[in-house]
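Hey, I'm writing a tutorial for new members on how sequence and structure tokens pair up, and I'd like a real worked example in the thread rather than a made-up one. If someone can provide the structure for the chain below, I'll link this post from the tutorial.
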Amino acid sequence: MTTLELLGVSKVYRGGKQAVDGLTLRMGPGLLGLLGPNGAGKSSLMRIAATLTRPTAGQLLFEGQDAVRRPEPLRAALGYLPQDFGVYPNLTAREFLAYLAAAKGVPAGRARTRIGELLELLNLTEAGKRPLGAYSGGMLRRVGIAQALLADPKVLIVDEPTAGLDPEERARLRTLLAGLAMERVVLLSTHIVSDIESVAGDIAVVAGGRLLCRGTPDELLAQVAGQVWEVTAAPGDVPALQARHTVSRMVRTPGGVRIRLLSPTRPYEGALPLTPDLEDAYLAAVGAGGAR
């Protein structure tokens, strides 16, 4: 079974900025959703997992072997889509993927077959002969997924893959990644709760470079059971409520501002209990982590 483990990993950049702080993640086949706010250290962690950045401390193990000292086995088994994925705009998708396949050492005959398979999988066959400069953002992200899958990797790491996509493209990409995770270790990083709530059975929440919690969606929801409330307030009272509680959403109505908030006990007389959702669990974890 393919395994990827980050054990007590820390990363301190020049100048003393600590991006990752003693974080441990163990992964097997399936999709792990790495959820956290911007600046949480997710991209640094992904770069360490992809052997692009050496950790300041801790271990990276691929199938039980040290992938910091010997990164070649992991790199040979890895597909990686960074957050900022660049292309050559004058090349077609087929030309670009052929160029990357050669760089990855995929034989030319196998590359042609594989590129055709991936363009079909990603619904890009008709666009495959068009210059990449004419592609939409969603199409470019799909090309990014294609290049990550060229060598049929055992490990797939994707950093903020839905950034800049419209809702339809985001849903299509989430479904694709869920399907790919059936046979691979897939690590998906995002700050958007909806990107993982429907596809990840395993979610890790990070902030400040630390792992705050990890579990199935049901386990994370159980941690905030009885802590989600709805209150209706006058507009002038909203700032005080926001200062006192974590507010997940607000809707202005003719009767006042309807507010969904987190509180371990009933915050006000007349507050109505609500069933928590994954965004509530995420905000509770991040709020508690920031209070440490």
